[in-house]
Amino acid sequence: MPKFVFLWTDIALFLMLAGVLAYFWRVRRSRTLRATWACVGRDAPAMCSAVVLCAFAVVGLLDSIHFRPQLPPVPAAAPDAPPIYAPAVQSALDSLLAGSVLAQPEKTYSAPLATRQFTKETELIEGHPLRHFPRLRSGGAHLDDPDAQWAGDVARRLAAGLAGGLAFALAGGMLLAAGLARRHGGWRQAVADIAADRSDVPWRAIWLTYAALCVVVGAVAGLATGYHVFGTDRTGNDVLWQALKSVRTALVIGSLTTLAMLPPAIGFGIAAGYFKGKVDDAIQYLYTTLTSIPGVLLVAACALMMQVYIDTHPDLFDTSAARADLRLFLLCMILGLTGWSGLCRLLRAETLKLRELEYVQAARAFGVSHWHIMRRHLLPNVMHIVLITAVLEFSGLVLYEAVLSYLGIGVDPSMNSFGSMIDRARVEMSRDPMVWWNLLTAFIFLLALVLAANLFADAVRDAFDPRARRFRPGRQASAAGATTQVQP
After folding, report:
1. How far is CA 102 from CA 96, 97, 242, 320, 373, in A?
2. Considering the entire predicted model, what is its pTM?
3. Is the per-residue pLDDT at 27 higher than 50?
4. 182 dihedral zone (left: phi>0; alpha: psi -120 to 50; beta)
5. What residue ranges are annotated as transmembrane (predicted)?
6. How far apart, in whole angstroms, are the C-alpha atoms of residue 432 and residue 428?
7. Are 378 and 351 within 8 A, CB to CB?
8. Using an 8 Å Cβ cutoff, are 432 and 265 in contact?
9. What 3-state DSSP class applies to 115?
10. Domains and CATH numbers, the chain
């Protein structure tokens, strides 16, 4: 039985997951929230982006289940001896990838789908030194003659992966049709409606995105059974494995930093707008002073102080993973506590308008306490701004982590992140011949994550902010035409 390890960021991620589920339960009980989120559900790009974000979330959550495997007992150990656990911490994602080539390191660089090392080495062959490209330890190691068998083997593994991906895509489509069968009058009619896109929710676009994702994952998984799909880096580690491990870091930075930013932004923003006067002046002076300091310098100073504390207290960490995780957790807290000024300004301006409305003036006239007015009347009416800002800030924070790691003040060097991959690629791009696959892999994953987050955030902003809501002329015209036909 393994020993489960609960890191700071693991607890935070699963608490946030519980919070999201609780919010969904609240949405189901609120007619207004259901109608608002229904607008998001009718946006095809947003729902396609939600599928991609769910895939990233699954990878991040699997990588957040940490444990230490139990080692076999020592031969001379007593029967009642306590179990011994491995010093290295693993995750559920590591266990899933253990049987593939992704978890098998090489000696140094290797190109995508290569069978030989990217750099030459001198080896003794039949007593004579010879410089050539040696065979990889794991990539293509099953081939007896790589030059003759490589193309056919890659084609077979790719075809098997595509077939598996298509099978999962069809299974998902059948489950979707079965779930919509009662509403559409049978599963055949449900399939026809999905194919013709005759529903409020764009199920066809959602299934096509899911199918494309299944095909891509299936193809990569099929090739990963025998090759390093995106090559290896200087230390021989698989680049695709590093990208998958970097997903959790990006999700933690984006979500946990936003969560740390909300309490001071909401508290100071509503208090400044409601009380005005000296309270408003003090809060404005505080966030004006904070924003006048260059953000990178402020974060760098806090990160260096944090690193000094970690280095001077090594007895607090039993594993290297706990040390790296605490640095990531504190970095999120630093980014959140130094980046709340923008949201605070927005909430202050909105509260200044809301405090002059009749229902707030009536509550004050009846002697309702200030705390109750801010909690019951002001906070619910600014939550759309909080939600919009939180979703929009996610992608920016993911990119900000890449910049910080590039500057050397980001996550721990032992932790995988997209910023670390880009930092290493800076040196690799200047090599001759060029090592390009590390930067390309980080670019692909960052592009998919940030683009999906931005598209979903646009739909949330349009649904929750009436001033930014978009109206599609095509649907308005069709609705007007239908109304005209119904009239006698």
Report:
1. 10, 7, 9, 22, 56
2. 0.84
3. yes
4. alpha
5. 6-25, 46-67, 158-181, 207-230, 250-273, 285-306, 326-347, 382-409, 435-457
6. 9
7. yes
8. no
9. coil
10. 245-467 (1.10.3720.10)
d(CA 433, CA 484): 68
Residues with Cβ within 8 Å of 457's Cβ and at least 6 positions away in sequence, in order, are: 388, 391, 392, 394, 395
Residue 310: both structure tokens together = 């970690």
Decide: 248 and 325 in contact? Cβ < 8 Å. Answer: no
Q: Give the pLDDT confidence score for residue 192 in this predicted structure.
A: 84
Contacts of residues 93-100 at CB distance under 8 Å and 24 or more positions apart, as own/partner, are: 93/59, 93/62, 93/63, 93/244, 93/245, 94/63, 96/62, 97/241, 97/244, 100/221, 100/224, 100/225
Instruction: Collapse the DSSP code of 42 into the 3-class scheme (helix H, G, I; strand E, B; otherwise coil) and give the result.
Output: coil
Instruction: Could you list the beta-strand ranges (E) of 360-477.
Output: none
Separation in Å, CA 422 to CA 138, 210, 318, 425, 480: 25, 29, 30, 5, 52
Enter the tokens of residue 36: 């608002």
Q: What are phi and psi of 68, to 5 degrees?
A: -115, 115
Q: In what order do the strands lie in the sheet with 66-68?
A: 3-5, 66-68, 90-91
Angle subtended by helix axes 379-407 and 239-275, to nearest 10:
140
**List of long-range contacts for 144-153, beta carbons under 8 Å, 24+ apart:** 146/115, 146/116, 150/115, 153/226
Q: H-helix or E-strand containing 175?
A: helix 146-184
Report the C-alpha gap between 408 and 420 in whole angstroms.
Answer: 9
The amino acid present at 63, given as its one-letter code, is D
Q: How far apart are CA 78 and CA 86, in angstroms?
A: 19
Question: What is the spatial distance between Cα 239 and Cα 223, in angstroms, rounded to a whole number?
Answer: 14
Residue for token pair 């919009």: 388
Average pLDDT, the chain: 83
- Lookup: tokens for 356: 């002059």
> Cα separation of 40 and 48, whole Å?
11
